[in-house]
Structures are given as structure tokens and as C-alpha cells.
Task: inverse folding
């Protein structure tokens, strides 16, 4: 295959992917907007719902891409995602929260700039990924999954522990190359009460770094004077932060796409297909798996920082294993091994399965005066005795958080039976940058070899 042919082939794939992504995102946003119009949502409500949708598309897209590096590229069964997310945000809070003195009601931090905290959080997630990977990568399949989910629970219970709730900081801290005098007297993880994230908002820090904070405040004032009179800043902050997250998804995508097409990425895919064969060909598979696991853990830590930094506080219950399973469902929907599929899976999961039921509940409650819901399932079913379905409907709407878990389970079962490879999984990939077809005639001369041994499509 010529260089122009390769460029044309990859260009065609890229154009199809962009078209598919735009179509899916357009359909999701259009559905939300039309539903809001149909149920009489005002402009503020519409913008707020779009901001929430964009936020969850961004965070689930990021995390699905990070998991794709572990599972889709390398075949590493990691069910401890939320543990690395928790390490990232807790270390960031510990480093960047303002310091407090002894006897203060809340736990303080070292008060360093936010970018230092983010860097520390990512490096901490990578370091703990290394600690987990060193013994765990000797295991495979279910055993690796058990180790990683146990690790995430260890992290969560450590966050809740009174032992690590507060620390007294010494007057001088000696690090490897230098010493410094911290301004904080008391730091810690906050125990079961969690931490208040009173450091600079990531959106504000980014806009100040780009010298755009004052123009943004001017835009907020213009919107308040001409469009939304009732404090539009929280809504605009949510919209802009969602856009920043989508840019972050794009950076994740570019990084992982280049990784997948590099010699390093091709070795990872070989390990995924058959580690023994890759090892027999002279590749140090343990080193490659270790590198992939550490890189993926760092990306998960960064995703956790971006996910939770927009909140006012964090608590250990936020890092239960259900978040990990949500990310796995997103990856399964899109298709493991495909970066485009990973993002699409995250977007569809966020818009349809995660935010969709809750958004529908909010729309119905805003459009109709429905009254109080029954207190239990028995009272809800009792209405059918008098041919009145309203108690059951009210109970169903009130229990939408539990109901969406049922919907996720049904969708997951259907996918496993009907399309286990997801939307874009098992794509055939070019195995070489040179023409592998034999000269002459015959079937072997017509089509180049594909990475999975089949015909390229």
C-alpha cells in the first residue's frame, strides 16, 4: 500500500468517526432541547440541563477512554477505576486547599497553586498504579479484577478512617532534594465527613491563566442584564466547564490514538490477543503491561480530579464501586479497543442511561402538579385496586435513581447477548505501513493483510 493510500484510508476512517460523533452528540442535545420545549422548560432550565449533560458526557467519555487503554488495548481487567479517581482528587485537595491553624473546624491543606495539586494528584495515581501493578500483573483475568476492586475499597476505607482524618504538620518537611517550611499546621483526609474543596475553581484557574477571567465576567454581566436576570453565573460556569471537559476528552483521544498507532500500542494489542506469542517474539510483556497500567491509572486520576473539582466537597461514599461499573458499561456500549467507540459509549451512557431518567423526572415534575409519592411499593400497588395508576406512576418517578440501575442492567444483558463487541468494537486495523500483498494475481494480491488476520474493510 502506498503512503497516499494509507493516508486516504486513515483519513476516511477519521472523517467517518467525526461524522458519527457529531451525529450522536447532535441527536442527544436535540432530544434534550425538544423535550424541554415540549414540557415547558424555561431558558435557565434548558441551559442547566444542557450543562449537566455536557459535564457527564465529558467525564464519562474521559474515563471510558482511560479504561480503553487498560482493557481495550492491553486486556487488563481493572475494576478499581474509582480508587485511582479518589487518589487523584484527594491528593489535589490535600496539596491545594488553603491552610488552617490548630483547632480549626475543617481540615486544611498546604495551600499550593492548583496546577501543583493537579500534578501531584496525577503522579500519586500513577504511583499507586505502579504499586498495584507490580504484584497484580503476575495475575490474569478474574484474579487481576479481584486485586483492583479490593484496592479501590482499601482506598475508600482509608479515606473514611479516623487514623488519617488529620495530621499535625512538622515545622520543616524534608523532601528528597530540598526542605520547605509549610504554612499549614493541620492537614488530612477528613475522615467520613470528607473535605470541603475551597481551593480555586478549576474553571477560574484556567481562565485566569489564559487572561480570560475579566472578559468572562463581562460576558456574565451582559447575560444577566439582557438574557437571564437571576444570577446566571452558575449556569454559565457549568456550560463553560462542560466545554472544557469536552476539550479534555479530545486531548485524551489524541493521546490514546497516537499511542495505539505507535509501536508501543501495537505491542499492547499483541498482548491483548495472545500474551504468550508476544513474549515468544522477544517482547518484555510485563514491562509493557506495567507501563500501560501506570499510564491508564494516571489518566484515571486526572479524570477524577476534573470530575470532582467542580463540586463544593467530596466524601468517601462518592467513590463506591458503582462508579467503576458505570464506566465499564459506557465502554461496553461503545466497544472496547475503539477510541471513538469509547467516547460514543460514554456519551450515550451519560445522555440516555445516567442523566436521561433523572431529566425525564424533572421534566414531568416541572410540567405537572403530581402531588406526593407513596411511601412504599405496597401503597403504590394499592391504587390498582381502584383502577388508579397514579400512585404507581408517582412512586416510579420518585424511585428513578433505583430504576435507572435496573435499566442499565437490562441494557447490559441485551448488549452481552446481541452485540458484545459494542458499537465500534473489533475494527480491523492496518497491520503495517508497507504493502503486504504479494505481487502477481490471485486473492492475496487483491487485499492487504489486516491486523486480525481477516480482510481489511
Result:
Amino acid at each position: 500500500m502506498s503512503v497516499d493510500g494509507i493516508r486516504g484510508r486513515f483519513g476516511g476512517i477519521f472523517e467517518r468517526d467525526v461524522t458519527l460523533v457529531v451525529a450522536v452528540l447532535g441527536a442527544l442535545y436535540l432530544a434534550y432541547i425538544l423535550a424541554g420545549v415540549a414540557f415547558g422548560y424555561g431558558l435557565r432550565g434548558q441551559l442547566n440541563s444542557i450543562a449537566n449533560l455536557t459535564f457527564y458526557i465529558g467525564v464519562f467519555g474521559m474515563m471510558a477512554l482511560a479504561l480503553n487503554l487498560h482493557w481495550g488495548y492491553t486486556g487488563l481487567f481493572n475494576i478499581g477505576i474509582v480508587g485511582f479517581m479518589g487518589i487523584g482528587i484527594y491528593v489535589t485537595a490535600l496539596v491545594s486547599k488553603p491552610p488552617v491553624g490548630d483547632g480549626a473546624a475543617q481540615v486544611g491543606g498546604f495551600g499550593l497553586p492548583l496546577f501543583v495539586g493537579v500534578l501531584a494528584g496525577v503522579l500519586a495515581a500513577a504511583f499507586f498504579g505502579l504499586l498495584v501493578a507490580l504484584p497484580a500483573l503476575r495475575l490474569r483475568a478474574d484474579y487481576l479484577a479481584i486485586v483492583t476492586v479490593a484496592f479501590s475499597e482499601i482506598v475508600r476505607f482509608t479515606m473514611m478512617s479516623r487514623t488519617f482524618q488529620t495530621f499535625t504538620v512538622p515545622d520543616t518537611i524534608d523532601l528528597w532534594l530540598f526542605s520547605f517550611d509549610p504554612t499549614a499546621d493541620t492537614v488530612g483526609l477528613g475522615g467520613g465527613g470528607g473535605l470541603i474543596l475551597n481551593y480555586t475553581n478549576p474553571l477560574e484557574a484556567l481562565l485566569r491563566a489564559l487572561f480570560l477571567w475579566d472578559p468572562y465576567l463581562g460576558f456574565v454581566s451582559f447575560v444577566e442584564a439582557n438574557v437571564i436576570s437571576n444570577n446566571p453565573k452558575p449556569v454559565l460556569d457549568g456550560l463553560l466547564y462542560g466545554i472544557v471537559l469536552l476539550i479534555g476528552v479530545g486531548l485524551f483521544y489524541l493521546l490514546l490514538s497516537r499511542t495505539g498507532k505507535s509501536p508501543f500500542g501495537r505491542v499492547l494489542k499483541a498482548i491483548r490477543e495472545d500474551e504468550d506469542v508476544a513474549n515468544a517474539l522477544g517482547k518484555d510483556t510485563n514491562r509493557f503491561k506495567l507501563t500501560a497500567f501506570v499510564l491508564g491509572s494516571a489518566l484515571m486520576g486526572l479524570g477524577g480530579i476534573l470530575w470532582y473539582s467542580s463540586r463544593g466537597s467530596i466524601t468517601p461514599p462518592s467513590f463506591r464501586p458503582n462508579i467503576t461499573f458505570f464506566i465499564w458499561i459506557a465502554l461496553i456500549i461503545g466497544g472496547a479497543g475503539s477510541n471513538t467507540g469509547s467516547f460514543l459509549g460514554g456519551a450515550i451512557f451519560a445522555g440516555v442511561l445516567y442523566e436521561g431518567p433523572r431529566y425525564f423526572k424533572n421534566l414531568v415534575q416541572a410540567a405537572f402538579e403530581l402531588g406526593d409519592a407513596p411511601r412504599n411499593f405496597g401503597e403504590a400497588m394499592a391504587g390498582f385496586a381502584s383502577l388508579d395508576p397514579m400512585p404507581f406512576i408517582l412512586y416510579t418517578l420518585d424511585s428513578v435513581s433505583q430504576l435507572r440501575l435496573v435499566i442499565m442492567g437490562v441494557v447490559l444483558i441485551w448488549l452481552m447477548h446481541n452485540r458484545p463487541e459494542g458499537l465500534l468494537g473489533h475494527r480491523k486495523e492496518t497491520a503495517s505501513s508497507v504493502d503486504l500483498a504479494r505481487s502477481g494475481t490471485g486473492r492475496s494480491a487483491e487485499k492487504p493483510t489486516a491486523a486480525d488476520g481477516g480482510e481489511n474493510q
Summary: Confidence is low (pLDDT under 50) at residues 1-10, 442-457. The longest strand covers residues 167-168. The two ends are 14 Å apart (CA to CA). Residues 43-340 form one domain.
